[in-house]
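Session log. Operator J.P. requested a structure for one protein chain; no other inputs attached. Running the standard single-chain path with token output.
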Amino acid sequence: MTSGSLYHYFANKSELLEATVAEMDRIALPRLRAAAAQADTVIDRLAAVLDESSQLMRDYPDLAAFERAMRVIGHEHGDRWRPPGPNALRDIISEIIGDARARGALPAGTDPGAVVNAIHALARGLTERAAGLDPGAYAATLDSAKMLLRGTLFTGGPQ
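Structure written below.
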């Protein structure tokens, strides 16, 4: 397929990127939601989502690089143009944290939006690292992130 034939279907690059992101979300959202549904605790649900996100990147090897490029494009164009960016991961994290809040699993006074932002930043960081690490190094990074979520990363050794 040539760029000319792409523009037969899309009037401009913005429409093409929006369609690509919508398709990514259409594929990812059900998979991430199903992963989250397999666990009971907030931590286990988040870990399952991180694992499924990793599986998505294995199934779609260009996903991490595409997401990185989308962020770069958004920053290059400043306020003039902001691509929507993939939303599935953030949406699932928001659902999990919303459920945690409803169940009383968040400490009093905790801002759920701030929690979503923190977990999403961790997940986006993992996506960023996936684009540049070999599979073994990425798996170790993912395991460390899950230990961080579980509160076990910095336990058991000298403080």
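Operator note: Confidence is low (pLDDT under 50) at residues 80-84.
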